[in-house]
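User: Sequence recovery, please. Input:
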């Protein structure tokens, strides 16, 4: 099941986004991460990989990450990315 299909069947919650992102990261960086783990401080991802995360979030959750939302802190943890996604979805829906 793709992230897009998963979003269509699963209510969009912080938990569902965190679960999907954790799976995406496990497949992409070949490491298990905790939802509160600092991905950059741990050396698991680089600032270049942050752009991959932006593209993934935008395509999986139909959001646009631009301007102030592009700050590194929004991508530091799985929790931060889930929070960002929910904020941007609420803004788009609202």
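Assistant: Recovered sequence (94 residues):
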């Amino acid at each position: 099941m793709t992230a897009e299909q998963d979003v269509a069947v699963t209510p969009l919650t912080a938990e569902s986004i965190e679960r999907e992102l954790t799976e995406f990261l496990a497949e992409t960086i070949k490491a298990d991460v905790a939802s509160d783990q600092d991905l950059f401080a741990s050396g698991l991802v680089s600032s270049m990989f942050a752009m991959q995360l932006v593209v993934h979030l935008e395509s999986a959750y139909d959001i646009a990450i631009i301007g102030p939302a592009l700050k590194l802190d929004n991508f530091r943890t799985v929790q931060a990315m889930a929070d960002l996604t929910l904020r941007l979805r609420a803004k788009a829906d609202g």
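The CA atoms of residues 54 and 65 lie 7 Å apart.
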